[in-house]
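hiii, so i know i said id send this last week but things got crazy w the move. better late than never?? heres the sequnce for the chain we talked about at the cafe, plus the structure i predicted for it. fair warning i was half asleep when i ran it
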Amino acid sequence: MNTKWIGYISDKNYKNINQFDSFGAVAQYYRKTFELKEKPLKASLKISSLGIFKAYINGQSVSEELFAPGWTNYNKRIFYREYDVTKLLNDKNAIAVCVGDGWYAGYISIKGRQLYGNYPLSLYASLTLTFKDGSTLTVDTNESWKAGEGAIRQNDFLGGEVFDDRLPHVEISNVDFDDSTWQNAFIAEDKSALLDYCDYEPIVMHENLKATLVSKQNNQYIYDLGQNFAGLVSIVAEGESGSEIVIRHGEMLDEDGSLYTENLRTAKATDRLILSGREIEYIPTMTYHGFRYIEITVGEGAKVKSVCGRAIYNDLKTTGDVTTSNQLVNKIISCVKWGMKSNFVDLPTDCPQRNERLGWSGDTQVFSRSAMYFADCRKFYNKYLINLDDDRIGGSIPDVIPHFGVAGFDHAFWRDVAIVLPFNLYEMYGDAQQVKKYLPFIKDYLDLQMQTAVDYTWEKSNYNDWLNIDENSPEDSLATCGNAFCFTLAIKLFTWLGEDCEKYKEFLDNIKRSFVAHFIADDGSIKGGTQTLYALSYRANLISAQQAKKGLEICFAKRNDHIHSGFCGIRFILPVLCDLGLVDLAYKLVTNDTFPSWGYSVVNGATTIWERWDSYVEGKGFGDKSMNSFNHYSLGSCGEWFFEYVLGIKPKNVGFDGVIIKPFVDRSGKIDGASGSFESINGKICVEWKKCSDGFYCKIEKAEQLKADFVFENVQKIVQDGVTVDRFDANKKVTEIYFK
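okay and structure toks below
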């Protein structure tokens, strides 16, 4: 194999491209023809790029995958992908690859473009053909490949795409394409030593969303896709050669019915199609947007024949879902799921629409357990942790992963991803071999926290309880709570893995002692006590159940039974209330439809979880445009509560080696029933409960090999596999329970 990295200068002025230019160089196109005397038994394409690529053979895409090879610290690691392309080959063949800016050279957040390296981009590809007699042939990138330009004239995740249909695109992979005016590619800097294979699910197109015309003014049309999502617009259009269609994207409409884009900050989120005189179905290749509404401006001589939306996200296997008797709650669950889909684009991002779209570590860790119930996230989060390991500085964890100069390191709650994410992965999936790879940075993280503590407390939480409503927690008590929680999880993880953790146990004991001395008042309350502090302190075993219950009752009474917690506390509120016996309050919070609440956003049109409780407030309008995403999953970390408390499904041991079934039914009458399922790696569990005239009925179905502990009070009758019994048998497949 003699595979070379190859390059092409698609813009002669590439050296003059400014860091803060909206667009960079024209997309690159590469091409190679070859003939075969016989059809191979197997053909495998190994391919990567500096930038993102889309590959074609004989007029067909080699894969449905978008934006490969994904985002890494390209100076430390470059992923490659492998595709089976056997069925695409003929006697005469052509392979073509389009390479765009992506994360490597595209505009990222507020830092501009070319953050990992300068233009030109480059390509690495090796097509290996295996024949009946065992012989092989390779078609490798080298200086014999031709390079030129095509239809994609501008491309950027934040800016959008400009596609000129008068120029070739997929056609470049046709055998008879005329490349006589193209140049030979040049040999680029060899990056082969950085290549690494990472097995993760590709980003592909999913749901097809119908567009409804909202308004028309002259040649400008506004459509509603009915759902906020991350994805692309697909249009069928035709028109005179050179006529244009411009598509702008936004999450909301302004009061006057126009497209609201102020919250996108500097992201242009605009695609432009230049027609060639023929009909075309156009879907962008090198960009994506977060939106619900689109504004289409149709130029003179152009015509749009159809419009729809295509959702994109990593192709993870769905493993769980929940539905209830309460339609408002069902819409909240839908918002959580769509927030997850929208932000599972190569890595767990904070938002898909504005000039950000980053892997914030705080958002990632707080939502990770919810995500693991909805989908199989093992490969997806492993990729994120690889990036974390590349970008950490010893035990100091970046706020944004991959890290590229935005935000800092070692900030409370955000840094906790180093513990919380591996812990959740191990408890949910039980892969010891996988989690042991993370032990070096887990230990480095814990050791750093031990070194930076002052009398076993920490002074700064930096972001505080991010985007809470008028309820900031004291920084020192919040940071100390967070670290106590992380040490608690780490000790449990080390114990499961048989790792020595005595020094961490001793240190945690000192944290608990110091927390009481510094932050607990004489009456047992937490100084500066907030909803978040009480819930998190209880989960970290820093206060008793009695203290937590009393404190939370006071906190919620002051807030008229509404959540005011931000990113740090939201995950813990509903579970802790249930654990403390305040189940009615938990159900009240999740069914509230007044501000602030999940339900308030739903009755005001939300189809995804909003970044802020006050992203929109009736009578006040939109929240702070500089920080106002309508598609953030962080406040949707209540997702895990629906599985672990409403359905009552929890792992008994790591990897769901046994399951605990303990639903917390709503006796207040706000929800009369719920049903759902979770497919663990050891089998599927289905739970359904509903209110009856004389109590409640619950039906549990589980995989036969999955042993269950049933935790119910006031049981009146038990039926297992159709037979009435006196006591529970953990091995039975179907269990029906009548209880008061």
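btw The chain has a mean pLDDT of 97. thought thatd interest u
miss u guys!!
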